[in-house]
């Protein structure tokens, strides 16, 4: 009986450790979102990610929430963002406004700021990626309602 309790305790501790280790870091989450949504594969060794906001409840099956990340590059990253597709009725200011509505102030986007936008579920789920070439910095904003 003691042996069974011991095994159950060990299995429980192993499960807890596995769950704790499997959570994505802000770097991993931001880079995987950029790759899956926009097809841009950024290498983590040349990138620093700062989480500006994160309201997702990772236990919520609906995945509702808001996130904003600042992505800084150690080398010129403009080639990654040169070919971003844009949507004519959306611009970088819409991404900045979405961030502001959720408590995150981003710098103003100069004209011609490369950005990308994706929307699903009639605009309830939105992803913005803005690249500021003068700062060599990108901002990733996601909202799932």
Describe the structure.
- By secondary structure, the chain is of the alpha+beta class.
- The chain has one domain (24-144).
- Helix content is 33%, strand content 27%.
- It has four helices and five strands.
- It has helices at 2-22, 26-38, 78-81, 92-101; strands at 47-54, 65-73, 115-120, 125-132, 137-144.
- It has a five-stranded antiparallel sheet with strand order 1-2-5-4-3, with helices on both faces.
- The radius of gyration is 19 Å and the shape is elongated.
- The mean pLDDT is 79.
Distance between the termini: 49 Å
- Count of DSSP strands: 5
- Can you give the mean pLDDT? 79
**Order of secondary-structure elements:** HHEEHHEEE
In one word, what is the shape? elongated
* Total number of distinct structural domains: 1
Secondary structure class reads alpha+beta
Tally of contiguous helical segments: 4
Radius of gyration: 19 Å
State which percent range the strand residues make up: 25-35%
In helices, the fraction of residues equals: 25-40%
